[in-house]
Design goal:
Layout lengths: L6 E10 L3 E7 H7 L2 H4 L21 H19 L11 H10 L8 H8 L3 H10 L3 H7 L5 H9 L6 H7 L5 H14 L8 H7 E4 L2 E5 L3 H19 L2 H22 L12 H5 L4 H6 L2 H11 L5 H11 L5 E4 L6 H13 L4 H4 L1 E7 L17 E3 L5 E3 H4 L1 H6 L4 E8 L9 H11 L1
Parallel strand pairs: 4-7
Antiparallel strand pairs: 1-2, 3-4, 5-9, 6-9, 7-8
Helix pairs in contact: 3-4, 3-10, 4-8, 4-9, 5-13, 6-8, 10-12, 13-17, 16-17, 18-22
Bound molecules: calcium ion.
Length: 429
């Protein structure tokens, strides 16, 4: 029998705290989960440094990826299956794209990508198309199949309806992470009625629309996303941990470049510091490895590397104040000078961090990052863009919210030292 059609002799289930069960019937999906590249996602946390604020947030990208797969599976097998607008031949590619969409995430994704100038989307494609176990399994379907899966994830796939299941303003990815992150952080935001949303989704040419009777469930979802961003994802204290993590890696890289002799060999980081990372180096790295190096670094001679890695491991985080870089530019320059005078290197100890989010966007053709809006299907079958029907969504539509924070080690500043006093006064001014 053709591999693509092959079903498991008996359905397998994973117990899941968010979806109760995750159902696997296809041999292909079962084999993909068993690959070493997919298993690696167990060793990458979904929320990076957030566990230092919400201690429950230790869940992995493995559990999120299974969750996204399950939501796509329910869409295509339970909701779309009888619709003439849904092409059943797209089922497998949609399931695989949902399962594999985060495959290229590195350890502590954002900080890591930033310091080493890497892009997880590039590595997702590289793992799917390169010499890997995932690629070998996908090719059992057909030689062209890995490219199809990669195209869906890269949003270049011909059938936009399939793309929209994985990446749009209401997709399986967001629906899983909002609920999963809410569950594991323990916050009361982030919950919405996914069962209701699934029941009102209607596949159409190029997209999936929402039956207008489901508008309030969609409003609830948009608001829960808005609240999760500011209460959890952009939490200022987990950003402090991320700042310290970035600065630790940056310090190690700069020491390496300056010819510093590390007491513990830095084998895993070699190509990252050199800037010639290959796929295997990338796959070999996970959060366990990073944290092991951080343990080593607390015993290095370099005082900055030693201090920063200790801070991260033992949660001795930086404090922060709000800043407005446009109007407080002089204050920032002044602080840099004062830090240097006090011999606290501002490169590592005075850090500006900005977060920005657009909760929902209507369609503005040609603009940067244009997003497909959510359409409601009215009883007369006409489509209406969500913010035109919903006052709540209209109120937050297209409004970008940004905040800037300045991080610094308050514990290093001694209020009896006049220079430190001056620094503290300038920060608070
Ligand atoms: Ca994701």
């Amino acid at each position: 029998m053709q591999y693509a059609m092959k079903k498991l002799a008996e359905e397998k289930v994973f117990k899941d705290p968010v979806h109760k069960y995750i159902h696997v019937q296809d041999q292909l999906i079962w084999d993909l989960i068993a690959t070493k590249e997919f298993q690696r996602l167990r060793r990458i946390k979904q929320l990076g440094t957030t566990y230092l604020v919400f201690h429950g947030a230790e869940h992995s990208r493995f559990s999120h990826s299974l969750g996204v797969y399950e939501i796509v599976r329910r869409m295509v097998d339970d909701v779309f299956v009888d619709s003439p607008e849904w092409d059943k031949d797209e089922r497998l590619v949609a399931l695989c794209a949902g399962l594999l969409h985060d495959l290229g995430h590195g350890p502590f994704s954002h900080a890591f990508e930033h310091v080493f100038d890497l892009d997880h989307e590039y590595f997702t494609r590289a793992i799917i198309l390169g010499d890997t176990e995932v690629n070998e399994v996908l090719k059992r379907v057909s030689d062209a199949f890995p490219q199809k899966v990669s195209d869906v994830i890269a949003k270049t796939y011909g059938n936009k309806q399939v793309v929209s299941l994985i990446s749009s303003q209401i997709d399986a990815d967001r629906m899983d992470y909002l609920q999963r992150d809410a569950y594991f952080t323990g916050v009361s935001y982030g919950h919405f009625d996914m069962e209701r949303i699934l029941r009102v989704m209607r596949p159409q040419k190029d997209q999936v629309v929402i039956k207008s009777t489901g508008m309030h469930a969609i409003e609830d979802y948009i608001m829960s996303r808005y609240q999760m961003y500011w209460q959890v994802y952009f939490h200022p204290v987990s950003r402090s941990a991320e700042v310290i993590l970035s600065k630790t890696l940056e310090r190690a890289k700069n020491l390496y470049k300056a010819g510093y002799v590390f007491q513990f060999p830095i084998n895993h980081f070699h190509s990252f510091f050199e800037g010639n990372v290959d796929l295997q180096d990338y796959i070999d790295l996970d959060e366990g490895i990073i944290l092991t190096y951080f343990q080593f670094w607390t015993q290095e001679k370099d005082p900055i590397l030693k201090d920063l890695s200790h801070r991260f491991l033992n949660r001795k985080l930086f404090k922060f104040v709000e800043v407005d870089p446009a109007n407080e530019w002089e204050k920032l320059v002044q602080l840099e000078k004062l830090f240097s005078e006090a011999e606290i290197d501002p490169t590592y100890y005075l850090v500006m961090d900005s977060s920005s989010d657009l909760p929902y966007d209507f369609y503005r053709p040609g603009e940067e990052g244009e997003r497909l809006p959510i359409y409601l299907q009215l009883p007369n079958k006409e489509l209406s863009e969500l913010s035109r029907s919903s006052d709540i969504v209209d109120a937050i539509s297209g409004k970008r919210r940004t905040d800037h924070k300045l991080y610094y080690p308050k514990d290093l500043l001694d209020s009896t030292n006049p220079l430190h006093q001056k620094i503290l006064a300038t920060i608070q001014a």
